[in-house]
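Work Package 3 (structural annotation) set out to generate three-dimensional models for the target panel prioritized at the project kickoff. During this period the team completed the workflow that converts sequence records into discrete structure tokens, so that structures can be stored uniformly alongside our sequence database. As a representative example, we reproduce one entry of 160 residues exactly as it appears in the project archive.
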Amino acid sequence: MPSFDIVSEVEMNEVRNAVENANRELATRYDFRGVEASFELNDNKVKLAADAELQLQQMRDMLRGALIKRGIDVRVLDAGSIVRSGKRHVQEMSFLQGIDSALAKKLVKKIKDSKIKVQASIQGEQLRVTGKKRDDLQQVMAMLRAEEQEQPLQFNNFRD
């Protein structure tokens, strides 16, 4: 019976490259000369540190631009609150991995409401869609791609 999985993953190698590119851009920008500002990547989180809140905002824009250049959808970014300690401003930005249960239930409901003859089941942080015909599965993929989701979705593990 044909099936495929719906997942939401971020390629951390591309994120690492984007953070390195953003650090290089930070070193060459004139408005950041003499400012202690940096990007640090550890445990699926990017830590932005700068002297002022305005600089943090510019750094977020730099990071988003670097992620877009590397082909990563910026909807996976989850910005944390800005923490001030002395003259340093620090913000952590994490990456959403996997499909949370609310979005999974919403996707299952959309698939069932479409009246396509497939079954969708939630398996942890991914959805498994099975059906009798490959065309039905491709129809589900096309439907989900056409609709704007709050998180980017990938389709993998397609089996016949």
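The chain is about 40% helix and 30% strand.
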